[in-house]
Amino acid sequence: MELLGRGALLLALFAAVYAPIAAIAGARRHDLRLVTSARRALAGCFACVAVASAVLVTAIVRHDFRFATVAGHSSREVPEPYLISSFWSSQEGSLLLWLFVLSGLSALVTYQHRRRSRELMPYLVAFLGGACAFFAFATSFVASPFETVAQVPRDGAGLVPSLQNPYMLTHPPLLYLGYVGFTIPFAFAMAALVSGRTDGRWLQAVRRWTLVPWLALAVGMLLGAKWAYEEIGWGGFWGWDPVENAALIPWLTATAFLHSVIVQEKKGMLKVWNVSLVALTYVLCIVGTFLTRSGFTSSIHTFVVSSVGWWFIGYIAIVATVAIVVIVRNLDQLRSPHRIDSLVSREATFLFNNLLFVALAFAILWGVLFPSISDALAGHRVATQSPYYDFFAVVLGLPLLLLAGVGPVVAWRRASLRGVVQAFRWPFLSALAAAAALVVLGFASSVPGVVAISLCLFVAITIGLELARGTAARRALAPGTSWPAALAQLVGRNRRRYGGYVVHLAVVLGILAIVGTSAYATSRTIVLAPGKTVQFHGYGLRLRGIESPITRSYISTEAVIDVSQGGHRIDTLRPSARTYLDSGEPTKQIAIRPLLRTGEDLYLVFDGSPRPGVVTIKAFVNPLVNLLWLSAIVLVLGFAIAIWPDPRLAARLARRTNEAFARAR
Amino acid sequence: MLAAVIVLLALGVAVVALVAWPLARERAAEASSPDARRLALLERRDAALQALQELDLDHQSGKLTDEDAERERRTLRDEAVATLAELEGLEPE
Prior knowledge:
The complex is a heterodimer of chains A (665) and B (93).
Chain A: H1 2-29, H2 32-61, H3 68-73, H4 80-83, H5 85-89, H6 91-112, H7 121-142, H8 167-181, H9 183-195, H10 200-231, H11 242-267, H12 271-293, H13 308-329, H14 331-334, H15 346-378, H16 386-406, H17 417-440, H18 447-477, H19 483-493, H20 495-519, E1 522-528, E2 533-536, E3 539-547, E4 554-565, E5 568-573, E6 576-580, E7 586-589, E8 591-595, E9 600-606, E10 615-622, H21 626-643, H22 647-664
Antiparallel strand pairs in A: 1-10, 2-3, 3-4, 4-5, 4-6, 6-7, 8-9, 9-10
Helix pairs in contact in A: 1-2, 1-7, 2-6, 2-7, 6-7, 6-8, 7-9, 8-10, 9-10, 9-12, 10-11, 10-21, 11-12, 11-15, 12-13, 15-16, 16-18, 17-18, 18-19, 18-20, 19-20, 20-21
Chain B: H1 2-24, H2 36-60, H3 66-89
């Protein structure tokens, strides 16, 4: 098993190293055979990594504790469905997962584009092969998942209890798909520049291959938030943990790119900026992984500290240097003859939005790095607290929210004052009315909260009006068409635009949830004695009893609490404290009662038993929090609309390319 | 151990075969490449034509005032005409 795993990884390394060498040689000699051979080497690399991954999965499932990774991150007590989490809970396994996803995507994307992007292919293969080679090297020689132990233990150390959760089966792989997926747009961008082919074909590929990891990161972060909400027990879902930030930072720059790429497609502007954003996003992904995996920052996620850090620093330096050199050497082909005519135009709005996204990304990055920098320079670690991040999230996030409403409606090039008034009077008046109503209803305790909710309404009404006006216009063009059919036609004719609007609606839902839980949540520590009902924010809480179930994996102390509203019992909640038998680690199991009518949660955390028969409970009411989980569904819907292939767009691209090829013959 | 060696050898042979197969074939004639300048102009032409279509819908849906729409339409038309003229200039003599 060990030999097979190590051997397969070495074969993967050989294939990954061969790919760029053969691809570049093929490009220089104009020999398509070498390029094809190089492309196939990526598929070979993936096959080898798949075998190595299968070996590790088999070792985990069979409890083969000869492997240090298996002994250190699983045990016979770990329930079977969660055993697979042992794969990526170790540093070695997570690097193997990275390589698995990277080589798989590389093989897939180069196969998909073997005809469409023929001129880019040698360089595309070279960049992807280079990335695969780094991770194959890291898993072969720096952090091998197939290291064996001198003395085989009878049982493993177990899996961190908080990872034994359904969300942890999907959250890490999705984040990896996100991080790794950004290698593809980076490789496309570099390949386009090196080959001198910066036409729309690479841009279309880059946009699509940015959307996929962008969604994976977004959904991964939301699943992580749900995990934190249900598992950690502080009543919130986002703690500005370095690992959460590491995923958010590249997501922000990728979001900036997804907006600014529209300006390039429509107006031929911002080419240097766009390609820089793609490169920056990839570098930030590697930086995020470095922060997560090197032990550079301390957080609940950083379970291990190892020697991969310096290798990652070297890789980041190489990638950043290559990107800068390639961009600077190709500035001529990226120059645009156009300039932004007016500050009140769609292109200016996109530019502002980009500046805000990038500023927010760097503010968060600085917050993540600052403790380590202060440690290195001043000798003591100054932790970055939530207020720092909250400040930038509010100061930069609120204007971004405003732009989400302005951008889709304001005219390209230059909007007249009359046009602006015509487009925004209803959304603006609605937002103003909402702000006044919120103040009257007593929500003025948080000014950012009132502003954010009003802006959410502004964005939602702008989008609603856009859809209504567009549908009416389509009906006018084809009289007799029903409203749903006209709406479907409208969306179908410009899926990217309307898919983007749906994504904006998801963002609105998410922000409402964030505002609800951060500005208007209520919490209290409550001591419950048997039989007595305590009132908390409209809920009656009555301790029915305390139970102590014991399972194969843990012993637990559960408070059985009847929950009532208006004198009627609506549910029984069981917040508890567990101690896992293999690790001895105590955890808290949260009990949540969602109220779908209002979107709020009653959230109970077991906080100990001060004397026999009595329990202390931390109780929270989190308004609107369920909108966050709903936003994930809306986000996926918007993504599906935006990425669904548009046959007319593909036909136009093919016709244009054929026309250009025909002239070249 | 022996099984691992056999699987590894089979994997190695399969990868080498996969990679070497294209090299065993005859060298194909080099494919032509599109003229980058022409492709850029065609892209600009298509972008202008698509923008004109979107402009009409935006105007009809009341998103743009008559003056804004007319000014933008004029600019886009000028751009499309200039691009088409430049494309014609690229035609071989």
